[in-house]
Amino acid sequence: MNRLSHVDRATGEPIRRYEHPYPGSLIHVDVKKVGNIPDGGGWRFVGRSRGQKNRASTPDKPKNKWHGPRMGYAFVHTVIDDHSRVAYAATTRPP
User: Phi and psi (nearest 5°) for 85?
Assistant: First the structure.
């Protein structure tokens, strides 16, 4: 029987951890799509009536088919190095 610190308590299986030998040998990349928030805050934070006013008064946004502003999306790119566990995140907006 293994020591309790070397075994997963729920299943009793040995814990297998891995680490690559040098930085950059394995990186994890993730891309998350998130919606933009109007100037002044969205409706979940300030309430529905104030949120609709904030959305309608957001300048420099193209209009959707109902003539309201199209808020759009932003993307968060995250990269984590497996050896050193260094993480980097950046946001981008589509043109």
Answer: 60, 30
pLDDT along the chain (95 residues), means of 10: 68 76 89 86 87 77 75 90 91 82
Q: Is 76 in contact with 36 (CB distance < 8 Å)?
A: no
Please report, for residues 5, 6, 7, 17, 21, the alpha-carbon distance to residue 14 in angstroms, rounded to integers and kept in the order given: 9, 6, 4, 10, 22
Position 78 in a domain: yes
Within a domain: 3: no
Prediction pTM value: 0.59
Query: How far, in Å, CA of 60 to CA of 71, rounded?
Result: 10
For the chain, the domain total comes to: 1
The residue range of the domain holding 87 is 23-92
